[in-house]
Amino acid sequence: MASARQPRRAGLVYGVVTYLIWGVLPLYFVLMAPTGPVELVAARVIFSVVFCAIIVAVTRRWRHIGALLADRHVVGPLAVAALLIYANWQLYVIAVETAHVLEASLGYFINPIVTVLLAVIFQHERLTRMQWAAVGVSVVAIAVLVVAYGQVPWIGLGLALSFGFYGLIKSRVADRVDAIGGLTVETTLLVPVAIAALVVVEVGMGGLTFARTGVGHALLLASTGVVTAVPLMTFAAASRRLPLSWLGFIQYLGPTLQFLIGLLVLHEPMPAARLAGFALIWAAIALLLVDGALQARRAHVPRG
């Protein structure tokens, strides 16, 4: 019994570490000033490639990476996934640098509901009544937030949709692509996009900050590779050791931390109407969590 608990306990630690890192990213990106969002995301791609290359070299997995790049059934979906995650990173950094951290947290609160809808549309999965109720409450919540913001919360919806489609595409090659292999291929494919972005910043947006703001800032930018890769590694370790239902609960740690940072640390406004929209989203999440718990319990009931 104790030996069975140990992998689960380790998985819980890995899962919490993963979402703690993702949850405090707003504070990390705030430290990146005066680097703008275009340069920051491009740097994140470049230094992620560097960090992944080090890991691949240490683990001697170049042949595996080469096989992934040579397999058109893998590299095609990963190329689309790469563009989606680039858009997701860009939106997230823009959210942080324009004081929209609360809206960014909204995107990741909504993401599981978007994932459920995508599963219905593209994988023809059937929803339970409680899942449909969660979707309905979410639609009402978004309507309330449109009124509260005075416009559609494009950043939140963009983050939820880009990450939802990213997850959908990655799920189709999950049996052939591990976390580091996938990140290595995706960021490698994004290098031309990142280089083009850096050229645009240097030529038309006031110049790059990387070589002009001191060694400390350059090292901070370089650390984006580590900050990108490490939580993916810990998430992969958690997913191997924990039931999916546990990960379903833990995943809300990230947006909860982002919400608290936006509200209490960065002092973004939260009028009553906006809070009502968030409260409806949390109610939808509660429905999903209860549904997940009920399904997990049914799965463990012995059949006679």
From TrEMBL:
Keywords, in A-Z order: Cell membrane, Membrane, Transmembrane, Transmembrane helix, Transport
GO cellular component: plasma membrane
Transmembrane segments: 12-29, 41-62, 74-94, 106-123, 130-148, 189-211, 217-237, 244-266, 272-294
Pfam families, alphabetized: EamA (PF00892)
Residue intervals of the EamA domain: 10-146
Its membrane topology: Multi-pass membrane protein
Localization in the cell: Cell membrane
Keyword Nucleus: no
InterPro entries: EamA_dom, EmrE-like, RarD
Principal subcellular localization: membrane
NCBIfam families from the UniProt entry: rarD
Family of the protein in this entry: Belongs to the EamA transporter family.
Name by which UniProt lists this protein: EamA family transporter RarD
The organism of origin for this protein: Pseudoclavibacter caeni
Gene: rarD
